[in-house]
Structures are given as C-alpha cells and as structure tokens.
Design a protein that fits this description.
CATH class: Mainly Alpha
Order of helices and strands: HHHHHHHHHHHHHH
Number of helices: 14
Shape: globular
Strand content: under 5%
Low-confidence stretches: none
Mean pLDDT: 91
Distance between the termini: 32 Å
Number of strands: 0
Largest sheet: none
CATH architecture: Orthogonal Bundle
Length: about 325
C-alpha cells in the first residue's frame, strides 16, 4: 500500500468529523492538535527503532516519570517542607530552597542533561538485557516499567515537584518548542535509517537476526543502540510534557503507552520487525491525535475512549498480520512444469 495511505485516511476522517463537529476546525482546537502531536511523536520515533529490530519498549512511560522527577529535583527553585520533609532525599539534595541547583543559572542545562542521560542509561540497561542476556524484550521492559514507575513515586512520595525555571516551562508553551524537538529527532532518525549503514543494520536485525549475524551485522550492538535511542526519546518526551505541566510528576505518562504503541502500529510500523519509516510514524501520530481529539470532543467516558482506541489498534494490528501473510504467500515459488 502507499506510504501515504494513513495520511489520506487521516484527512478523510478529519473531513467527516468536520461535517458532524464543525468546531473541530476552530483555531484553538487546531492549535491543541498540534501541541499534542509533537510530544507524542518524540516517543513514537524512539519506539519505532525498537520495533524495527523486532523488540518492544514498554518502559518508555516509566522513563518519562523517573526523568521528570530527577530533572525537577535538580531544577526546582522552592519546595514545601510540609510535603517533602519525609522525602528520603530531604536535607541531602532537596531543601526549602529547592533542588540541587535551584536558583542557579546551571539549573536548566544540567537538569535537561540529567533527564536525557538517565533516559539513555535506562535504555542501555534494557538493551544489554535483551541483546547480551537474551531476555525477552517484553519481560525486560515490563519489569523496567514497574521498577522505574515505583522508583519515581518513592523518590517523591507521590508529590509533584513545582517551581521549575521559566526557561524550562517555556518549552511546553504552545507548539513551537515541542515541534523543534520533534523535528530534530525526526531528521536524525530519517538520516540514520535512510543514509547510514546503521539503518540497514537495524532493518536486517529486525527481518532475520540469524541471517544478519551471519552477514556480519553486529546485531547485539544494533539492538542496544535501538533501546538507548528509545530511552533518549522517552526522556525528550518527558521534558516536553513536564514543561507543559510546569512540574516534575511521578506519574507522568501513565496513560500514554497505549497511544505510543497505537500510533506506531497505525502508521504501519510492523510489530514483527524489519519495517518502519519516520514518515509512517508522523502519519500514525497524526491519525491517533485526531482520533483522541475527536473522542474527547464527543465527551465520552474515559473507559469508552480507551475501548475505542483499543479497537482501532487491534484493527491496525490485524492489518499488519494480514499484510505479512500476503507478503509471505507472494514470495512462495510458483509451481511449474
């Protein structure tokens, strides 16, 4: 099918929505669509790399939570003793004056650096467990999801950390900052997948890891790099979402995992590995963002929205399965005399 099929489907769906919900084209709603699309795209791009090598990363949302908390602990300018005096880090890193670098000119760059490095480090741990220890990606990232989600809550005692630097908060205002971050990551991902040997290695490892290994592809290193990049993108997404909320939140991303996987699958990134393009990720995020926006405009209950999203993702997964089977049949040798 055409690379642009999901784009056409998104435009058609948006047109049908406009007929029944005219307010969906209002500037305010369009701005909301844009501001929701770019942070999600940063997460889907990272997930795409892991799916291409035949894995999956369920820990992205927990990486968002723990990096949001750690970054806020570095940058916060003030903390309420009533809320945080029982925190295990109170008096060590945290105080009434805020985090470790609260009020310092270094708070913003160091805080962002801590978030990105933490995300990449967690991705490295996931990648090494999958590539070197040969553990199932689902189990590895599931354990990471529970562990780091729990760690984020433990470090904050479930309290949000506020009073972040103005420069950090500015990243979450409007769609300009999030668009720039998503654009940089998208261009980087496109360059790697389309113009570098590493991109061919990623696809080869996802298509058939044994064949790739025999062909000289450093499959272990490729898989590790995919998970590192996924963790890095999750931290970048955490920066954007934390800036929008103006706080470090220990439950950040709790309801985003379905959106991340769903947007990737809807875009056409195969769950079987070996297939994925940046443009597919963009189109998948576009469709999923429009879908989520339309469901919210209908004032549906939370569980109804989740049911509809789940059904759409299931249909996309079934289409992926059907496509793979048709490709397998088409490659079978034809009978002859």
């Amino acid at each position: 099918m055409s690379d642009h099929f999901v784009l056409f489907l998104s435009l058609l769906y948006f047109f049908v929505l406009w007929l029944f919900i005219p307010k969906i084209t209002e500037p305010r709603n369009l701005a909301n669509l844009s501001s929701n699309m770019w942070p999600l795209l940063t997460l889907v791009i990272g997930q795409m790399f892991v799916l291409i090598v035949g894995g999956i990363d369920l820990s992205q949302t927990s990486i968002m939570a723990v990096t949001s908390v750690l970054g806020a602990m570095v940058m916060s300018g003030r903390l309420d003793p009533v809320l945080f005096e029982k925190n295990p880090l109170w008096g060590v890193i945290l105080s009434e004056n805020g985090g470790a670098l609260g009020g310092s000119i270094w708070a913003l760059p160091v805080g962002i650096l801590v978030m990105l490095l933490t995300g990449a480090l967690i991705g490295l741990l996931n990648g090494l467990s999958v590539a070197k220890l040969k553990m199932p990606p689902f189990m590895v990232t599931l354990v990471s999801m529970f562990f780091f989600s729990g760690l984020a809550i433990y470090l904050t005692r479930s309290e949000n950390i506020m009073y972040l630097p103005r420069g950090f908060v500015a990243l979450g205002r409007g769609a300009v900052g999030s668009f720039c971050v998503a654009l940089v990551l998208a261009l980087l991902a496109w360059f790697v997948l389309s113009r570098m040997v590493l991109g061919r290695w990623l696809y080869a490892a996802g298509m058939n890891i044994r064949t790739a290994l025999v062909s000289g592809v450093p499959t272990s290193g490729v898989i590790v790099l995919a998970y590192v990049f996924s963790g890095f993108c999750a931290a970048a997404g955490s920066i954007l979402y934390s800036a929008r909320l103006e706080m470090g939140r220990p439950t950040l991303g709790d309801n985003l995992l379905l959106d991340i996987i769903g947007a990737a699958v809807i875009g056409g990134i195969s769950l079987y590995g070996g297939k994925g393009k940046v443009i597919w990720a963009v189109y998948g995020v576009l469709f999923f963002t429009i879908l989520a926006n339309s469901l919210n405009r209908m004032n549906l209950d939370f569980y109804t929205v989740q049911i509809v999203k789940g059904c759409v993702i299931l249909i996309a997964a079934l289409l992926d399965v059907t496509r793979m089977r048709l490709l397998a049949v088409s490659r079978l040798p034809k009978g002859g005399a």
